[in-house]
Automatic annotation (TrEMBL):
Organism the protein comes from: Arthrospiribacter ruber
Protein's name in the database: Ribose ABC transporter permease
Organism taxonomic ancestry: Bacteria, Pseudomonadati, Bacteroidota, Cytophagia, Cytophagales
């Protein structure tokens, strides 16, 4: 992204929607993406594009004919990411992740990668995002979430059969990566 200072100001100004005190570190992004197999994957969704740090990792790993839908509610972050990713197979969407179904056109995502701040999202919206993520995930697909509270695992159990939890200290603050099927 262009100006890290402006991005951080936007991050702190809108902490209720960004839900972070800093952007995801490269080691955290690498750990998250290590649980995703991009081979043969045609439809990828990212929930919470932020500064594009996870997006960059996805773009590096996705196949050339895959499509990536990036959901971000912050308009400034969307405009910055649109400059970074002008490719036709990458769609930056300034909308809630609760509307994922409106953009998939009946397709199912093989991978949904999320850094949404679920702890800060109101309960009805959280429920809707989880339901729509589950319902729009391919049968053998994965929903992979970065989070800072282990307790979110119990929430995800309401929507996904299998959840593997991984912890990393290589981020500030330390984080969990939850891999859900």
């Amino acid at each position: 992204m262009r100006n890290k200072g402006t991005l951080l100001k936007e991050l702190y100004t809108n902490i209720s929607t960004t839900g972070a005190i800093t952007f995801s570190s490269k080691p955290l992004v690498d750990k998250m993406l290590s649980y995703a197999d991009f081979k043969g994957v045609k439809t990828i969704v990212e929930l919470g594009g932020g500064d594009g740090s996870i997006t960059a990792g996805i773009v590096d790993k996705m196949e050339k004919d895959a499509i990536l839908l990036v959901f971000e509610v912050n308009e400034y972050f969307c405009k910055e990411m649109e400059k970074m990713y002008p490719q036709t197979n990458i769609q930056i969407i300034n909308d809630s992740a609760a509307n994922i179904d409106k953009y998939l056109n009946g397709e199912k995502a093989e991978l949904i990668l999320s850094s949404l701040p679920f702890s800060l999202i109101d309960k009805p919206t959280r429920k809707e995002i989880c339901e729509k993520s589950r319902d729009n995930l391919a049968l053998d697909g994965k929903f992979i979430q970065i989070c800072y509270s282990y307790l979110l695992k119990y929430q995800f159990k309401n929507y996904f059969k299998d959840i593997q939890t991984h912890f990393t200290l290589k981020n500030f603050p330390p984080a969990f990566v939850m891999v859900c099927n």
